Amino acid sequence: MADSSVADVDANALLDEANSTSEAQGEPQFTLELNQDQKDIRDWVHGFAEGVVRPAAEEWDEREETPWPVIQEAAKIGLYSFEAMGQFWADPTGLTLPVANEELFWGDAGIGMAIMGTTLAVAAIFGQGTPEQMGEWIPQCFGTADDVKLAAFCASEPDAGSDVSGIRTSAKYDEAKDEWVLNGQKAWATNGGIAEIHVVIASVDRELGSRGHAAFVIPPGTPGCEQGAKVKKHGLRASHTADVHLDDCRVPGSCLLGGKEKLDERLARVREGKKAKSQAAMQTFEASRPTVGAQALGIARAAYEYALDYAKEREQFGRKIVENQAIAFDLANMKLEIDAARLLVWRAAWMGRNGHKFENAEGSMSKLKAGEVAVWVTERAIQILGGNGYTREFPVERMHRDSKIYTIFEGTSEIQRLVISRAISGFHIK
Ligand SMILES: Cc1cc2nc3c(=O)[nH]c(=O)nc-3n(C[C@H](O)[C@H](O)[C@H](O)COP(=O)(O)OP(=O)(O)OC[C@H]3O[C@@H](n4cnc5c(N)ncnc54)[C@H](O)[C@@H]3O)c2cc1C
């Protein structure tokens, strides 16, 4: 005992010293306790999710339409705005963004995606644009509280989903006019065709595969950028998903994110066989994975809470169903998995925000775990509600449908495992 208390004192002294050194160096302290700003934002988003999003969830899922009035409400309170997104992103711990997403998607995932779908395009502009491009295009992605707009990020194509190197949409430079001419078909674009701003990933050199990709902003109303078929979906039905057709779509040279000089330099490096920085689509997905994981967590937590309350009320065989270990242990496991997934999401968000490289694909781990937890937890929630769980009278059925996309978009579970296994092994696992 005496030895261990000496060790404790020494450890505490060391910890204090380490903390004061890093404090002196101005490094943020590691803590899992949210600060007051983060708690305020969490409670603010939660209030909106509970008061506005949840009551509207069933209606917009059934209508399978973009819930413009709800997005407008979000814009009115400043939640749907580039200022709010900037504030969430600016938090040096990286946690505000996942915390806000979890709360919003706890309200409803379809409406949550209708509100947050814009941020994928914003992440692309933010990640690859010049400061001037960010200043010009990011505010336009949101519009204003009186005139709300959406944005779309278009990478996937009918024959290029997991394999983005298969992208066929081409961008050719017309030097005489300083314009890029885009041709091709994009598939499954969230907000595709109804967006004010489309960010399109196109190939400027097919021979270079994904290393020959670049990202372009398509300004509002550009001729040759049209919505194709709207997709009817299993879940996330309040979020609009559609094909986007690009037919001789001409955009000014300034719409190439990052600028032509940077692109030419990158292509020259690739052609010389040198390593180039990660590709346009991949960069965007890397940055957004922990946030997407947080959305899945929100769905999982909502289903778990609903199932827990139900199990404490519903009686069979003269007792509450939660008094059966079979049900109680399921609920314990649901809570356990959700909390474990949240730790992975927070770790990846913190790493991403603080410039730590995902050496072991921590971003992929967070999205993979949270997505699979959401599918499993929502399925268990249906089971706990029995017949009621299977009906549209109770929300866990919708939550289960909504959760499934989280093992598919932004990299399927198989692709996340591929990324993780390559990172940990150093082998090019196929
Ligand atoms: C609702 C919704 C919204 C979307 N929003 C957007 C958006 O806003 N922007 C955008 O660009 N895209 C979007 N997508 C597209 C989405 O990112 C793709 O559907 C996803 O990347 C998977 O591609 P795929 O559908 O072509 O599947 P495929 O790539 O054809 O995969 C089919 C199956 O094969 C497996 N597979 C493929 N390759 C391998 C491999 N090497 N090893 C093991 N298994 C493999 C996959 O894991 C999957 O199980 C959206 C899709 C949906 C449904």
What is the share of helical residues? Answer: 40-55%
Number of helices: 14
Q: Tell me the fraction of residues in β-strands, as a range.
A: 5-15%
Distance between the termini: 53 Å
Q: What hetero molecules are in the model?
A: flavin-adenine dinucleotide
Radius of gyration: 23 Å
How does the overall form come out from the CA principal axes? globular
Give a quick rundown of the structure.
The chain is an alpha+beta fold. It has 14 helices and 9 strands. The site of flavin-adenine dinucleotide (FAD) has 20 residues, from strand 1, strand 3 and helix 14.
Structural notes for this entry:
The termini are far apart. The longest helix is centred in the last third of the chain and has 34 residues, at 280-313. The model is unreliable at 1-15 and 17-22 (pLDDT under 50). The protein has a 4-stranded antiparallel beta sheet, with no helix packed on it. It is of the alpha+beta class and 430 residues long. The protein has 14 helices and 9 strands. Residues 120, 153-156, 161-162, 188-190, 233, 236, 241, 405, 408-409, 412, 414-415, 418 line the site of flavin-adenine dinucleotide. Flavin-adenine dinucleotide is lined by residues 120, 153-156, 161-162, 188-190, 233, 236, 241, 405, 408-409, 412, 414-415, 418.
